[in-house]
User: Which sequence fits this backbone?
């Protein structure tokens, strides 16, 4: 843990310090390491997470390739990697406490860390404002 | 409001109320129903600890009248309807000639008629089946689903809440009995029935009173911890109790004997549809049985319907239902297995996500500490 991650204040404003995918993952970049998780929007639509399938360290992932699997009573959901890279660390405390993803999706609920292969892929991701507009459009009622 | 078409969903009288409560709505059997509000786990726990409030108005509600009403229903179902006392409810299955199950239902006996509550997904099928068998009988069947509503108030504090809203003496309503009572100034049938394993009531009332009663229950029960609960929690609660759900544990390919419902099959009744097939099944002995299955370790993927069941390296069946039990924190499931593997304690394996998870045949209910009042 080399960077203090701030807790979000307002529930529906995605944190500014990271980038977002259109599948509701986030990534914070610190040098060549990216920390990945899913957004508050994603966890609230998933429901209570009861199981997470974490990847093995050293696995190679592509941008928007499958990184992990989260499961709620309702459904199994794929988690995609926002950037291409190599997995260097996974959040093993999620195995015993999968509910961390619901309780603290932007901080304690982080899923994996990757060594980023192609930093230019960041251009394909949304910033907080863009993601916020994106999910506003997604909400049904 | 656009006119209803084949494609549009039906709405219960509480549709607006669900939206206001922040419900996540889904299509269930052609009805727009809440799957959850706050969350399945929170709602499940609220029912076990305090009170949960369910809108189950999507379930089919029929009224059967006429001088032949009682023998008619008695002929269509497996339990002994003639023995039901006035003011009593009875769990039943309705079968085809081959003993396969058409539906499971609750039958209520009144002085001048029978009421039946059936699964929403089977309502049209059940009604058609019943109508087809009325020839030559003095029987009139009315579908009261659209003009009524059905609410379930379930939990150890359910009676405490209801007692604030009715002058009826609730202690005089034992398990599986019902009475006419005014609840929150609305006429209703109040029955001590439910699908959760907790004490509680179901309230049958006019559709146009439903919203008022729902809001009143939520407001008056606030200090008791009442929560609105959706179909998601309804499923995890019933599964912890090992209660059957149509199209999971029971369907037209299963008979009530192998489903563990032999206790509601009265083979000494003079006659009923399916009797011959069931008598024959019993005589031959069951080849398979519905069992409860519990995983051996926590923090596994969710076991789900159709996942295979393995025993000694071979697939012997597949799951009918499954979930992670909110109270036990471990995977629980049901499934049919050959008779020789049905003994509690039998070792099974449930493969999930390319891993093999050990499980055991387990007696149901999985959850044994419910406040349900059994007489």
Assistant:
């Amino acid at each position: 843990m080399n960077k203090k991650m701030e807790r979000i204040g307002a529930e529906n404003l995605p944190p500014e310090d990271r980038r977002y995918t259109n599948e509701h993952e986030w990534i914070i970049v610190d040098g060549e390491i990216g920390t990945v998780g899913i957004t508050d929007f994603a966890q609230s639509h998933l429901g209570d997470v009861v199981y997470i399938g974490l990847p093995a360290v050293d696995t190679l992932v592509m941008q928007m390739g499958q990184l992990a699997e989260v499961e709620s009573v309702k459904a199994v959901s794929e988690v995609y990697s926002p950037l291409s890279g190599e997995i260097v660390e996974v959040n093993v405390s999620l195995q015993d406490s999968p509910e961390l993803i619901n309780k603290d999706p932007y901080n304690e609920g982080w899923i994996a860390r990757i060594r980023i292969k192609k930093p230019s892929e960041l251009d394909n991701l949304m910033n907080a404002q863009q993601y916020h507009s994106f999910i506003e459009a997604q909400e049904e009622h | 409001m656009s006119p209803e078409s084949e494609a549009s969903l039906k709405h219960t009288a509480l549709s607006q109320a669900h939206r206001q409560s922040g419900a996540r709505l889904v299509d269930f059997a052609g009805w727009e129903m809440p799957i959850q509000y706050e969350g399945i786990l929170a709602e499940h726990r609220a029912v076990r600890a305090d009170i949960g409030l369910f809108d189950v108005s999507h379930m089919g509600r029929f009224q059967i009248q006429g001088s032949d009403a009682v023998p008619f229903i008695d002929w269509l179902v497996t339990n002994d309807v003639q023995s039901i006392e006035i003011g009593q409810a009875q769990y039943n299955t309705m079968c085809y000639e081959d003993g396969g199950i058409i539906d499971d239902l609750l039958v209520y006996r009144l002085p001048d008629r029978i009421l039946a509550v059936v699964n929403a997904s089977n309502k049209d099928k059940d009604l058609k089946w019943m109508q087809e068998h009325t020839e030559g009988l003095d029987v009139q069947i009315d579908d009261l689903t659209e003009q009524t509503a059905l609410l379930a108030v379930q939990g150890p504090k359910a009676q405490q809440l209801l007692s604030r809203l009715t002058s009826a003496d609730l202690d005089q309503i034992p398990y599986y009995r019902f009475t006419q009572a005014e609840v929150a100034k609305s006429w209703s049938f109040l029955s001590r029935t439910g699908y959760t394993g907790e004490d509680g009531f179901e309230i049958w009332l006019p559709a146009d009173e439903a919203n008022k009663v729902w809001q009143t229950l939520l407001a008056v029960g606030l200090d008791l911890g009442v929560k609105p609960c959706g179909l998601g929690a309804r499923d995890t609660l019933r599964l912890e109790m090992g209660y059957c759900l149509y199209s999971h544990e029971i369907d037209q390919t299963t008979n009530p004997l192998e489903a563990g419902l032999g206790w509601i099959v009265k083979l000494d009744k003079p006659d009923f549809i399916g009797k011959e097939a069931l008598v024959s099944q019993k005589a031959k002995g069951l080849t398979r049985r519905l069992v409860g299955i519990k995983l051996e370790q926590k923090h596994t993927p969710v076991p789900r319907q159709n996942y295979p069941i393995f025993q000694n390296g071979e697939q012997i069946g597949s799951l009918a239902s499954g979930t992670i039990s909110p109270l036990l924190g471990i995977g629980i499931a049901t499934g049919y297995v050959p008779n020789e593997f049905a003994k509690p304690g039998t070792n099974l394996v449930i493969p999930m996500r390319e891993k093999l998870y050990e499980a055991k045949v387990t007696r149901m209910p999985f959850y044994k500490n419910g406040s349900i009042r059994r007489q």
Remarks:
- The radius of gyration of chain B is 21 Å.
- Residues 1-6 of chain B have pLDDT under 50 and may be disordered.
